[in-house]
Amino acid sequence: MRDVLISIRGLLTCLALLAAGGCHLGMRPDASAEAPLAGMTDRPRVALKTIPLELVFVRHEADDPIFRDELWNLADEQVFEDDLRRRLQANGLRAGLVTAQLPPHIAARFQPPAADVGETLPAALPDNPALMLHVLRLLPGRVSDVMAATGLPELVLLKRDGDSLRGTTYHGASSLFALRAWPAADGRVRLQFVPTIKHGPVERSWVGEEGMFRLEAGQRRDLLQGLEFEATVPNGSMIIVSCVGEPASNVGDAFFRDRSGSRSGQRLLAIRPVPQSQPVDPMFAPTDAEPPE
Question: Has residue 211 been placed in a domain?
């Protein structure tokens, strides 16, 4: 009993000494908020670098001399390899890079009235406006869908691959370009276009990206292999894409030809980088590596 009393007295003495010395036996609930990790308080928030692109769809008659001849005389189609140009043309597509300043009468055709500026891209309907403008802000290497024609109950598509011709019928279809962009430190932008058909009912599927899987709902996607193309666009320049040749239920028709039956109209897509006040971060300068899949 005497030993127990001595131990209790010793414990009380230690507690009194700790209290007198200002020591604490516990941690306050808010202590972690008052003591952040070193270097975390003055670290700036990193803003995501996006690439602004201006998209313009222009509707015109098939025999319009400006969009049939004059504009294409200013376009450099040689930026694409001969074999690719032949494949595009065999499927009713035409693409080129315009670096020259447009004459005023052509530039005026790319200027929309204020009421026509919006976020809805043209579909294959006869009552669409003559011009529609949209601005996209893309993350480097991330896909964005550029819709060319939507809401097609039935789409008969003839795709030519060399000497072979394959026909496919799609239901509930939309034609689009899967667009990716990579900026360079000097202000140029590399653009990649992949013609794609979305079709069928909406389905749920698992999609893998950056080591993770997520459940997405959407239509099936058919990539039109062999017709993807890309080009590097300097500041003040633009890529133009449209259909070529006579109507033939080909890829160009599915993307750019009016489908009302009584109209001879078609559309042209122009994409140009939007000039930025600040130069592109050098970390996005292009390398010899292939673009991410």
Answer: no
Quick one: tokens of 179? 């667009």
* For residue 82, pLDDT beyond 90: yes
> What string of DSSP letters covers 231-279?
EEE-TT-EEEEEE-SS--SSHHHHHHB--SSS--EEEEEEEEEPP-SSP
Spell out the long-range contacts of 44-51 with Cβ–Cβ below 8 A and sequence spacing 24 or more.
Answer: 48/139, 49/139, 49/140, 49/183, 49/280, 49/281, 49/284, 50/137, 50/138, 50/139, 51/137, 51/138, 51/139, 51/140, 51/181, 51/182, 51/183, 51/189, 51/273
Instruction: Mark out the alpha helices in the chain (DSSP H runs).
Output: 2-20, 31-34, 65, 71-74, 82-90, 104-107, 251-256
Taking only the tens place, the pLDDT of each residue in 93-139 is 999 999 999 999 999 999 866 544 444 444 434 445 688 888 999 99
Distance of alpha carbon 81 from alpha carbon 227, whole angstroms: 12
Strand partners, 51: 138
Range of the domain at 81: 51-150+176-196+223-283
Q: How many independent structural domains does the chain possess?
A: 1
Which one has a higher pLDDT value, 276 or 150?
A: 150
Name the token pair of 155. 């789409």
Torsion of CA 191, 192, 193, 198, to 10 degrees: -120
Burial of 230-254, coded b for 16+ CB within 10 Å and e otherwise, reads bbebeeebbbbbbbbeeeeebbbbb
| 261 within a domain of the structure (yes/no) | yes
Residue 208 domain flag: no
Considering the domain boundaries, does residue 112 fall inside one?
Answer: yes
How large is the average pLDDT for residues 210-216?
69
